[in-house]
Design brief:
heterodimer, A: about 180 residues, five-stranded mixed β-sheet, 7 strands, B: about 675 residues, alpha+beta, four-stranded antiparallel β-sheet, 21 helices, 10 strands, about 60% helix
């Protein structure tokens, strides 16, 4: 009995783990940064290293900041949606190309289409650390003052867009600055 | 009416499953023969009801009965009839129905093939399977009824375009056959624990079922990989996605179980371990179902997720696996192993094989659940990607392949290292020479790692051939060939398949060439020796989509090799784009063209085009195909079908009743 009970004990541990996991939505991550301003950064742009993109460019309008990489499978999943959003001209989408190489990233955009108004190139992932990026894709809604209003982890589905993003964006747009 | 009939058949199936799960068990406890005998008819009628329910749902799809919510959400009047049929298992509710139907099918097969087994044993096995079925039927009727009506009847969706494909017609049923098939060794294991005894007869019953389930799992996973390769549009064939892992983990444990059963049958040892593997194999099938259906993990495949369903599956999982492990903790101590073996022996190598497979499986389980663990501990959200899995998988597979090369040639019980070296050194040399020659001929000079991997594969294949040779006598070649058992030949085929697979994975990973280029009709591009010519771009219409179809000609050394027609489809009802790759398959290389995005900013017909040269990619699926064939051959071995009285397993019914009257 003593030895043969080990598998049961391990299994009970696993069940507890799964039960805790079940009570959480993997896509909702409490970000300590919500309601705070985007950590200051200044990065070279993907297509033109001479130009930079930084915190100041995020101010003055409601915008999306999308963390992505050409290595990221889920990014491909949400990509068509981003292209659609870009076509609607509702809100500018800025990209943060995360832990990628310039060549791969540009190829990726050439092949799949480029929804971004500008892409900051974060090869080392330093800005990612400041932002608390867990993985790609992640998408932030940034308000006119450069504050993070919402953070979404994982690919954005059509439903996420309708039910989570649009209400926040509409609300932010209605606020007079 | 028809959907209601299906719903009713499901409820009836549940009632029958309850009977099948309880009465026979009570019968074995109370030695009530008639209660035990109820298991077989209950199982058969249950299968009949499930088949009826499945037929009703299929009919609703063919009949375009959009008042059934599931039909309305997952099909469309424009969808061709064969996809309307495969749409039955295209989403959550229907795939569950398929799951239960297949469980019913396996159970039915047991009632048919196990007539020679003792009644008490068959009753226990059927009862366990009945209880599993109760859980799934309850789950379906309470949380995911496929027959739910919804008015007004309007088309609400479409079959996910990714699933509108031949691969997806066959992949899920195959995989489910494997998943659910592992329930059979599980039920055998539980019955053995209840009985408190494992003998050679038990293994002889369990082995063929395990092999067949494993074959389905092998082929199902290979099909899934092949489907991802040609349908997802960028030529990847394995992503270490949680859902893929969910199917791969039971496969690894199933493989371990097959080998452990071999030892238990031949040497009467590893008994408790075999039981534990049988329990774990099915547990991982259930865990896979939980991971896919509950939404605890983010996955590309998770097309149907719902936390309330997760709670139910977790509860069910706890009862089934927890109950099984409790029983194991209580009874397995009494299952004694008798065989002894030395450090250098085939038993030891099979033990190593088992340990490696289980460790790999545990590492993959850890990687799959790690994000969940970190989250539960409040340590933040992370994701574990392919680098982790490759880093743990490859180093553990290398020793496994090394063992595979000579394991079948090692003597049972006791062998000696010097004699092994004497027997194997030539094979090792042959493996090295063949490996180097293969690399040089196939792809030219390669890195040390690639060469070593191919050498390893050649070692596996050379060792397998030597195993064959060891059984043949030069004087009587034909006779000794005929005397080989199917189990033995099956093993050789499967092991050879492993070698083929290793070569495929190694060469395609190291030598594939990929370019993303901007091309317009009339352009051409050289990829290695191959000249890809973009001839024209047309618009073609399918039944439920519009597509841009490109025509590519591939020329090598002034000779036209192939014409490919990659497409970019736009499905009307779901407004989703899909990439259909154009592939020129070959035994030694695939040429792969897929269309990215139109780049028609300047009014031209230019597209981003993905061109790929994939050497030996077919071998990745050829290997599993050989494994599957080997498995089928092994399962049909004559020794599993021999009717022989097994000592000590006489049915309880034989109580010499008629004799009483006469004496």
């Amino acid at each position: 009995m003593s030895k043969t009970i080990i598998p049961l004990v391990i299994f009970i541990g696993l069940v507890i783990l799964l039960a805790v996991g079940l009570s959480r939505d993997p896509r909702v991550v409490p970000s300590p940064l919500i309601g705070k301003s985007v950590p200051a950064f200044e990065l070279p742009q993907l297509h033109d290293p001479q130009k930079t993109f930084g915190t100041d460019d995020l101010k003055g309008q409601v915008s999306l900041l999308n963390v992505w990489g050409s290595w990221c499978v889920s990014c491909r999943v949400e990509h068509p949606l981003l292209l659609q959003v870009a076509q609607q001209n509702l809100i500018p989408i800025y990209g943060l190309n995360y832990k990628d190489t310039r060549e791969d990233a540009i190829n990726w955009l050439d092949q799949l289409g480029d929804p971004y108004s500008a892409v900051a190139f974060d090869a080392a992932g330093e800005v990612g650390i400041d932002l608390g990026v867990y993985g790609a894709p992640e998408t932030y809604i940034i308000d006119r003052n450069g504050m993070i209003a919402y953070k979404h982890i994982g690919p954005i589905s059509g439903r996420d867009w309708r039910e989570k993003f649009l209400p926040v964006i509409q609300q932010l747009k209605n606020v007079k600055s | 009416m028809i959907p209601e009939l299906g719903h009713f058949a499901l409820i009836l199936a549940l009632c029958l499953a309850i009977v099948q799960g309880t009465l026979p068990l009570a019968g074995t406890a109370l030695r009530n023969t008639s209660w035990m005998q109820i298991a077989v008819p209950a199982a058969r009628w249950q299968f009949g009801c499930l088949a009826l329910a499945f037929a009703c749902l299929t009919y609703a799809f063919i009949d375009k009965d959009f008042s059934v919510l599931y039909v309305a959400q997952n099909s469309n009047s424009l969808l061709p009839v064969y996809y309307r049929i495969s749409a039955v298992w295209g989403a959550h509710e229907g795939s569950l129905l398929l799951w239960v139907l297949i469980l019913g099918g396996w159970t039915f097969a047991i009632t048919h093939f196990s007539r020679s087994l003792p009644l008490a044993f068959t009753s226990r096995v059927l009862a366990v399977l009945g209880l599993v079925s109760v859980g799934f039927l309850l789950f379906m009727l309470l949380t995911s009824n496929p027959f739910e009506r919804h008015f007004p009847a309007v088309e609400r969706g479409d079959l996910n375009p990714l699933l509108q494909d031949f691969g997806l017609i066959v992949h899920p049923p195959m995989l489910y056959m494997g998943y659910v098939g592992l329930a059979v060794p599980f039920a055998f294991a539980i019955a053995a624990l209840l009985e408190g005894r494992i003998d050679a007869a038990w293994t002889r019953w369990t082995r063929p079922w395990t092999i067949v389930a494993w074959v389905f799992l092998t082929l199902g996973i290979a099909l899934g990989s092949w489907w991802a390769y040609y349908e997802l549009g960028w030529g990847g064939w394995w992503f270490w996605d949680p859902v893929e892992n969910a199917s791969f983990m039971p496969w690894l444990l199933g493989t371990a179980l097959l080998h452990s059963l071999a030892v238990t049958e031949q040497r009467s040892t590893f008994k408790a371990w075999t039981i534990l593997l049988a329990i774990f194999g099915f547990s991982l099938s259930l865990l896979g179902t939980f991971l896919v259906r509950s939404g605890v993990l983010v996955s590309v495949h998770a097309f149907a997720t719902d936390p309330t369903r997760g709670v139910f599956i977790l509860g069910f999982l706890s009862i089934v696996i927890g109950g099984a492990l409790l029983l194991y903790a209580w009874r397995a101590g009494g299952v004694s192993s008798t065989g002894r073996f030395e450090l250098v022996s085939r038993e030891m190598l099979l033990l190593l094989n088992n340990v490696l497979l289980v460790v790999v499986c545990a590492a993959i389980l850890l990687g799959t659940l790690y994000p969940l663990l970190m989250d539960a501990l409040g340590a933040g959200k992370i994701s574990v990607g392919p680098p982790y899995f490759n880093r743990v998988f490859i180093p553990l597979m290398v020793p496994l392949a090394l063992i595979l090369g000579f394991g079948p040639l090692v003597h049972w019980k006791k062998d000696s290292l010097p004699s092994l070296v004497r027997r194997m050194h030539k094979t090792a040399l042959i493996g090295i020479v063949l490996g180097v020659a293969f690399v040089l001929l196939a792809v030219g000079p390669a890195s040390l790692g690639v060469t070593l991997a191919v050498i390893l594969a050649c070692w596996v294949m050379a060792g397998t051939l030597q195993t064959l040779k060891s059984r043949l006598s030069p004087q009587d070649l034909g006779g000794s060939l005929r005397r080989l058992s199917r189990g033995f030949v099956g093993m050789l085929l499967a092991h050879f398949g492993v070698g083929i697979f290793i070569i495929g994975v190694t060469l395609v990973s190291a030598f594939e060439k990929t370019e993303d280029v901007r091309m317009a009709p009339g352009d051409h591009y050289m990829l290695g020796d191959y000249r890809f010519e973009f001839r024209e771009l047309n618009t073609v219409n399918g039944p439920n989509y519009e597509a841009k179809q490109a025509t590519f000609e591939i020329v090598r050394n002034e000779r036209r090799i192939a014409t490919l027609y990659p497409e970019k489809r736009f499905y009307r009802s779901s407004n989703q784009p899909m990439t259909e790759a154009g592939i020129n398959p070959g035994l030694f290389r695939d040429l792969y063209v897929s269309l990215g995005e139109p780049l028609d900013t300047d009014g031209s017909d230019a597209w981003a085009v993905h061109l790929t040269y994939k050497p030996f990619v077919r071998w990745i699926w050829l290997g599993p195909l050989l494994m599957g064939l080997g498995g089928l051959l092994a399962a049909s071995d004559r020794r599993y079908f021999r009717r022989q009285p097994v000592p000590g397993t006489r049915p309880v019914t034989v109580r010499a009743k008629p004799a009483e009257g006469r004496s």
